[in-house]
Amino acid sequence: MAELGCSYLGIELRNPIVVAASGLTGSVEGVKKAAAAGAGAVVLKSLFEEQLRAEISSAESLLDSHPEAEAFFERAGMEEGARAYLDLVKGSVGQGVPVIASVNCVGSSRWAEFAARIEEAGAQALELNMAFLPANPGETGASVEARLLEAFAEVRAATKLPLSVKLGQSYASLPNLGAELSRLGAQGLVLFNRFYRFDVDLQALAIKAGPVRSGPEDYHETLRWIALLSGRFPLDLAAATGVHDGETALKLIAAGAGAVQVCSVIYRRGFGVIGEMCRAMDEWLGSKGIPSVRALKGRVSQASAADPAAYARLQYIQALTGIS
Q: Cis link prior to 132 (omega < 30° from 0)?
């Protein structure tokens, strides 16, 4: 049998399959199911600042706009949401699977304080979901990235936990951003976070949510960037979006991923798919005589390629020659 054990964010995992932050990991019961199914680790459902603020909106509506009273209710609401999340962390620790907490950062210093409390609650690492969507024409790409780096630095200063940053695809230079995050003390990158899809209801002439879950063809951009970034800086890379089977997981690991995050496929097929993916990886590695996922990691990354330039021009070569 091949060895599926690996290391991610300094944590030894029994296999590289990580259950992503989602409703699947929003309760201790969900974490228990993931552990029983053989997951390598779990990322707890993200805590959003918007969630915390929603808790106090009804109370604030009962008040006249009195600054001190509003501040009191805001603090109380933030505390209530924080306590519930910390209870989730504490209840999940010790369930037989490494626990990575997750928060959705918007640049508030509140998250820096909260990160220290997550560490105290027993989480083994913290994933920062940093989905900054620029909507102001006056905001430059550089300013968006500066805001992201500033938010990260605040959290980094507040905790000794290993930190990973979950990013979207829409940055001018992911290699540069990754290098800057590494310089500031990040241990990992998760590529990519999945924005809620946008759609329009033509009957109501109103916006609505598009498809929420990924499909098995959605991994290609993640694969590209894992291959391009692997080995460029001392960061563990985790692949997310479109990981629906063991074959895809192996491709991403060969490109340089240290772990792969799964979510949509579990919603579709149940937690048992984790075992199926592990068995498929074991069988393929054995058939190729590759002893472990560690031995496979990064074999087809750009950094290890004989012709690194091909990773950037391959699609154009295919278009010109008609090779598919």
A: no
- Angle at which helix 174-183 crosses helix 220-229, to 10 degrees, equals 60
For the segment 109-146, what is each residue's pLDDT rounded down to a tens digit?
Answer: 567 778 899 999 999 999 999 877 777 888 888 988 99
The pair of structure tokens assigned to 287 is: 């058939």
Rg of the chain taking only CA atoms, in angstroms: 21
Which residues does residue 47 pair with via DSSP β-bridges, in sequence order? 103
The separation between the first and the last C-alpha atoms of the chain, rounded to the nearest angstrom, is 35
d(CA 225, CA 171): 12
- State the DSSP string of 69-120: HHHHHHHHHHHHHHHHHHHHHHHHTTSSS-EEEEEE--S-THHHHHHHHHHH
> Hey, what domains does the chain have and what are their CATH numbers?
6-321 (3.20.20.70)
- 34 vs 134 pLDDT, higher one: 34
As a whole number of angstroms, the distance between CA 107 and CA 149 comes to 9
Q: Which helix (H) or strand (E) holds 125?
A: strand 125-129
38: left (phi over 0), alpha (psi -120 to 50) or beta: left
Q: Report pLDDT digits (tens) over 294-313.
A: 999 999 999 998 888 777 76
Classify burial at 70, counting beta carbons within 10 Å of its beta carbon; exposed 0-12, middle 13-18, buried 19 or more.
middle
pTM above 0.85, yes or no: yes
User: What does residue 128 show for φ and ψ, rounded to 5 degrees?
Assistant: -100, 115
Q: How many helices (H) and strands (E) does the chain have?
A: 12, 13
How far is residue 186's CA from residue 189's CA, in Å, rounded to a whole number? 8
**HSE-CB for 212 with a 13 A CA cutoff:** 9
Distances in Å between the alpha carbon of 163 and those of 74, 134, 187? 27, 24, 5
Query: 289: phi > 0 → left, psi -120 to 50 → alpha, else beta; which?
Result: left
| Beta carbons of 20 and 261 less than 8 angstroms apart | yes
